[in-house]
Amino acid sequence: MTVFLDFRADAFEAGVAFWREVTGCGLSEFRGPTKDFATLLPPSGDAYLRVQRLLSGGVSGGVSGGGGCHLDLHTAAGSLEEEADRAVALGARVRHREAGELIVADSPGGFTFCFVRWEGERFVPPTVGGSRVDTLCLDVPPARFDAECAFWSALTGGEAHPAPVPGFTSLRGPAGMPVRLLLQRLDDAALGQRVRAHVDLGATDVAGEVARHVSLGARVTATLPYWTVLADPADREYCLVVRRSGGARGSGGTTGSDDAA
Q1: Alpha-carbon distance 110 to 242, whole Å?
Q2: What is the pLDDT of residues 70-121, one digit of tens each?
Q3: Is the pTM of the predicted complex or chain greater than 0.85?
Q4: Going by DSSP bridges, is the β-strand pair 37-41/49-54 parallel, antiparallel, or unpaired?
């Protein structure tokens, strides 16, 4: 899995600079027809975070939105179409194809994800600077929650488990993945919205990491018992979540947590 951080054009430079500092990553050369994509390069291990500049109107490379996150699922090059067909049978909608390279789809609840070629990535980068992006949390309107849980469980093979905090379901996939998926049931005010997502960073010292992130340009938007919600310079919300030393389990959302230890 690769997580993309999608930025509005006017927030791209500041957003990328912030996430480079937070993650301790370098930056690849920009690529794509309009040079809107780059990879955050960890000091060791395989990259699993990328950045994208959305073009005017909020569209780039078949992905649309005002800035947020989307997910790439890596698969063998010869199975891209097969995997897309399987996703459609599970309720997805294909929106864009680049033969042999990329297929862009929406989940039943409207969350954008892509099938891309697997290039042999297998080594998860270590924690740098006191925290690591270890979870992608899907923020799901209540009417779509059960269907979205069933879709992602079937698509990824991850076993769905209710989290300790009500309103959250985690998908337990194979060991060695750089991120895990967590689904959060939003409150009634979110009825009718599309599924969106935010990233969570696990940390053993959340207070210390909050201070570091704020010093780099983030702002705190909510403080809860086991996690803190922040916004980056591009106004993207994300969470710092308490983890046990040596573990990277679960994740928290903007209103809850899968693993508060």
Answers
A1: 30
A2: 999 999 877 899 999 999 999 999 999 988 789 999 999 999 999 999 999 9
A3: yes
A4: antiparallel
Contact 214, 220 (CB under 8 A): yes
**Tally of domains within the chain:** 2
Pair 103, 159 in one domain: no
Cα–Cα distances (Å) from 62 to 47, 55, 70, 106, 171, in that order, read 22, 11, 12, 11, 27
Kindly state the DSSP code that residue 252 receives in the 8-state scheme.
B
Domain that holds residue 222: 132-242
User: What is the C-alpha to C-alpha distance for residues 39 and 26, in angstroms, rounded to an integer?
Assistant: 8
Question: Is the domain of 167 the same as that of 235?
Answer: yes
d(CA 47, CA 24): 12
Q: Residue 259 falls within a domain, yes or no?
A: no
> Which of 117, 141, 168 is the last residue in one of the domains?
117
147 shares its domain with 217: yes
Containing 206, the helix (H) or strand (E) segment is helix 206-215
Question: What's the CA gap between 254 and 166, in Å, rounded?
Answer: 13
Instruction: Assess whether 232 and 141 both reside in one domain.
Output: yes
Cβ partners under 8 Å of residue 171, min gap 6: 152, 153, 156, 158, 159, 160, 161, 180, 181, 182, 183
